[in-house]
Amino acid sequence: MIQIFGLPKMPLVKAGDRIGDQLVRAAKDASIRIEDGDIIVVAQKIVSKAEGNVVTLNSVEPSALAKTVAIGACKDPRHVEIILREAAGILRMQGAHLIVETRHGFVCANAGVDKSNVGANDSVALLPVNPDESARAIRERVHELTGIDVGVIISDTFGRAWRNGQTNVAIGVAGLDPIMDYRGTQDMFGAQLNVTQIAIADELASAAELVMRKRDGVPVVIIRGVKYVRAPGSVRSLIRPKEEDLFR
Amino acid sequence: MIQIFGLPKMPLVKAGDRIGDQLVRAAKDASIRIEDGDIIVVAQKIVSKAEGNVVTLNSVEPSALAKTVAIGACKDPRHVEIILREAAGILRMQGAHLIVETRHGFVCANAGVDKSNVGANDSVALLPVNPDESARAIRERVHELTGIDVGVIISDTFGRAWRNGQTNVAIGVAGLDPIMDYRGTQDMFGAQLNVTQIAIADELASAAELVMRKRDGVPVVIIRGVKYVRAPGSVRSLIRPKEEDLFR
Predict the structure, then answer these.
(1) Distance between alpha carbon A139 and the CA centroid of its chain, in Å?
(2) In which band, very low, low, confident or very high, does the pLDDT at B127 lie, cut at 50, 70 and 90?
(3) Is A123 part of the contact surface with chain B (CB cutoff 8 Å)?
(4) pLDDT score recorded for residue B238
(5) Angle of helix B19-29 versus helix B131-146 axis, rounded to 10
């Protein structure tokens, strides 16, 4: 059986906070024992805030391009300026939609730059500079404080091609292989499996969202009882190289 | 807390079986009580088998087009013929990749036509003709037999644009709104939420996959403790209309 539960007592995170310390304390306060093999899913927003990766709109001077795009997209030109700075490439710019490739290689709307749950009206949060490193730091801190070996996923909410609605996906990974590889294995009846690589880190992020919920302020979720392959892990395994992608 | 567990005693499904009867019996045999509000996720493969939606390759005469495509894709031309018959449109045909829109409106590889876990070497399973209706029938049968109100999701494993690996998504829905709609609501700090519509049926399908696993033969999974909106529901809510899709 798999169990998924939120940490109810996480404090509001501010710049300079260490998420690893806070979540271990929150677990303790809630009498929750972190266990070997637990997957801890952490919402991107609190990681960005802890790392100080928040920008005040007033500090931004929008370029001519940002001003032009902002008119079409009905966005604040300063917000657009930050999105363009975070983008390594633009896939679609149409109406209010600005689908870009981020410097990390993620394809998402607005480069993940987001006003909600930042806590200041004139500020936006950027994605963490190196989300794998953020995940690794949390994982190591949990191990230092508790001696327990966990997997850590930093998650964010992305839209998809072809399907309505957004889902949580992994943007940083530590302590697990984000892909479960079935290549060369057989199905129940001895035939070669057609489905070969399952993106379990994304499935774990999605499962965590069912507890996180956007409005409820549950930014840290523990998933217990999942079989996974322990490995250093990196979200890079989940990013399809441009040259192999049929939809760029 | 959310709990996810498989039904361990599901029999091998064959044409004409009623999944609703089988899963209620399997739950009983395993001393599992189905509870009000449970989400039951059923793998597409057993639904297709129960509905007799399996085609023997020997019964298929490939067209000239199927033969040509099969050479490029290194596939059996009869398999390609079935894929083309299931397709309402073709998005990409490149190397071994055949990404199509199915008659239902799903965008996926090979129109969901799949050899694995069918149990006969020369046969392939197609997607259910009307997966919402399949879900509804299971939901109603569970209610008839137990008096319990559940949500039902038929799931399949699809690839995505931009990201490696496949994840489970919903292809049929009954008893829940597949989208959790946050439009017009506020974040923790009173600001408008940026993320507005969460595809919880897809997240539930992904969460179920963590228990299903391809090789393990766990085609029915129960998810307990999820807050969702009860509604007749339809997977159509998850299908982005072509004219609104930036990636066709």
Answers:
(1) 15
(2) very high
(3) no
(4) 98
(5) 50
Q: Over the stretch B157-201, which tens digit does the pLDDT of each residue have?
A: 999 999 999 999 999 999 999 999 988 777 777 666 666 899 999
DSSP-derived letter for residue A225 is S
Mean pLDDT along residues A40-63: 96
Whole-structure pTM value: 0.96
Query: How many Å lie between the alpha carbon of A47 and the closest alpha carbon of chain B?
Result: 16
Classify residue A119 by its DSSP letter.
S
**Kind of pairing, strands B151-158 and B39-43?**
parallel
Flag if B246 and A157 touch (Cβ within 8 Å): no
Neighbours of B31 (CB within 10 A): 6
ipTM surpasses 0.85 = yes
pLDDT in the model for residue B214? 72
Radius of gyration of chain B (CA): 19
Q: Which residue, among B236, B15, B20, has the nearest Cα to B130 in the 3D structure? A: B236
Report the alpha-carbon distance of residue A5 to residue B162 in Å, rounded.
30
Measured on CA atoms in the order B240, B241, B245, B248, is the torsion positive or negative? positive
Q: A44-61 burial, b if ≥16 CB within 10 A, otherwise e? A: bbbbbbbbebbbebeebe
Distance CA B28, CA B33 (A): 7
Provide CB contacts within 8 A for B218, sequence distance 6+: B6, B7, B8, B10, B211, B212
Q: In chain A, which residues have their Cβ closer than 8 Å to the Cβ of B192?
A: 115-116
Alpha helices in chain A (DSSP H): 19-29, 44-50, 64-73, 77-86, 131-146, 200-212
B74 lies within 8 A of chain A by CB:
no
- pLDDT tens, residue by residue, B4-32: 999 988 999 999 999 999 999 999 999 99
pLDDT in tens, A81-134: 999 999 999 999 988 889 999 999 999 999 999 887 777 678 999 999 999 999
- CA atoms within 13 A of residue A59's CA, in its CB half-sphere: 6
Task: Give A106 to chain B, closest Cα distance, Å.
Answer: 8
For A191, the token pair is 């035939």
Q: Which residues, including other chains, have CB under 8 Å from residue B197's CB and lie 6 or more apart? A: A164, A165, A166, B179, B180, B181, B182, B183
Question: pLDDT digit string (tens) for A127-186?
Answer: 999 999 999 999 999 999 999 999 999 999 999 999 999 999 999 999 999 999 988 777
Shortest alpha-carbon distance between residue B180 and chain A (Å): 8
> B95 at the A interface (CB within 8 A)?
no
DSSP, res A186: B
Q: Which domains does chain B have, with CATH numbers?
A: 3-51+128-239 (3.30.1330.100), 55-125 (3.90.1660.10)
SS3 B57: helix
